DNA sequence: GTGGATGAG
DNA sequence: CGCTCATCCAC
């Protein structure tokens, strides 16, 4: 696709309409005459005429990460290897004609002195990924953790450098930056006289701003005038570090040749607008931050700062099925070809919402830049199996490897927030060339998320997905294990129970130890009716109740430590009661049941749950004392705390897609 | 909630 | 291209 904007026309004489798409449709709102209202209010969102957005990405990011990590001279050619392929090639290496997806051998042939770093990997049992010269894809899994961490550092610098800007991490090496607010602030700082509407202004706050000062585009990078968008500059004029700082969409006079810097003040005409000023300030801020990142972290970046159009093929959303569908529907191959289709025609065919696509085709992208939560909603670890696996044990092996990665990543994320809780765990497998199938299950909140806990669930899901093997042969070519629905647990309550309550068949009730009764003496005893039934087929599950019995070495003292604690305040030994999982419960009676039927969860998992429950019990017991103090006068039960999903915006008002949407039309709904 | 599909680097 | 990652959405 190319020929972006081939139908656009700029009008250097008009202050109100900067370009038109063919004759009839115009986009007046993009670049109106800027008034005091435009400047002094900041409430127009993506229709703000002073809106400036930048996209900044790191150059050959993975390669740069390795270069920085190893303290290698950035001028040396370096590639990052993943098995037999390359996943990153730095600029010096590109000079040798090496490109991504070259085979490693070819790359070395082209450049014998090439620095080759294999991406970090780990195998089952490794506590963390490591850098090895020749990891085996049959035993190891790639880890991108280091790159994720470095990425976060860069995002952090954007945020610190632009406290009032909006930063949206777009990928591991890219971020969208909304400069609209910082630019406004800067304009008011530099031109304070704009801060008040002059008394003699003809239309009050709706009067146009006075003419802008001349702009120096010097040192702001490469400027891409709007005229040139069909023939944009190439990167040959980049700074020496290979990075670029482009600004696009400035409604400039014709004096600036694409890719050249005229090196100074724009005194060419009277066509400079406040719109241009905004763009130039953003470009300047962008450059400053990029330099800071380079100096502090060692990463070079490229940025494109645009008011509304971007050069070359930089159109989002058309790279996938939508683009293909459009091309087929209209039997065209370039964006330019689609510009002949009028808005009316598109809307008649695809409904009102297709204006979104119509604008995208014209380089107008009104998407909001919105900061994403620091923690992502999901985490996925996956492994392609060059040699398809055929046995359940092999599956368990990979599940453990993937579980190790998830454990590592979740625990690392928890360094920032202890209450992080993935509500769901999912196992995907791909059999041969079939599409993926998956199974998921609730994941309990556990303070210690270990490989064993995760793998326990993974194995359970595996059995649901492929069975225990034997009878039906399989050939699995990919295994993925993921957490989803990551949110935070509020004041760490009632979590295990919530999880187990959904498995009524395994509810068991068992008081442990002779002192169990004494536990109920301290706080009030549960009056809830209890089921006295034990699990009938106890061989089916390794539930908590079996633990003390299974382990013959388990002395009484050990058992005490595992299932109880002594409260400092009341000097009571407080016991963990394994009982009915659902329903209400008193402050002192922690309830835990075994998990799923079958040998679904390992003993170790139960152990983790037990420890978790014990920790919860301590908190609750402390709460009990606290509540007693507070509520001495009132005969009220201790307020129950409730689990509340943090991102619990239950999307009730989800728009129903029109059932008439068929084929291509379904792409046209508003994003 | 579950499971599949999509887009992106 | 092969691999990895995250989100969306119909059911």
TrEMBL record:
InterPro entries in the record: DNA/RNA_pol_sf (IPR043502), DNA_pol_Y-fam_lit_finger_sf (IPR036775), DNA_pol_Y-fam_little_finger (IPR017961), DNA_polymerase_eta (IPR052230), Rev_trsase/Diguanyl_cyclase (IPR043128), UmuC (IPR001126)
Keywords: DNA damage, DNA repair, Metal-binding, Nucleus, Transferase, Zinc, Zinc-finger
GO-annotated molecular function: damaged DNA binding; DNA-directed DNA polymerase activity; zinc ion binding
Biased composition range(s): Polar residues: 7-18, 540-552
Positions of the UniProt region annotated as Disordered: 1-20, 202-271, 512-555
The keyword Signal is assigned to this record: no
GO-annotated cellular components: nucleus; replication fork; site of double-strand break
Localization per record: Nucleus
Domain UmuC: 53-180
SUPFAM superfamilies: DNA/RNA polymerases, Lesion bypass DNA polymerase (Y-family), little finger domain
Gene Ontology BP annotations: DNA repair; error-free translesion synthesis; error-prone translesion synthesis; mitotic sister chromatid cohesion; response to radiation
Main location: nucleus
PANTHER family assigned: DNA POLYMERASE ETA
Name listed for the protein in its UniProt record: DNA polymerase eta
Organism encoding this protein: Pycnoporus cinnabarinus (Cinnabar-red polypore)
Upper taxonomic lineage: Eukaryota, Fungi, Dikarya, Basidiomycota, Agaricomycotina
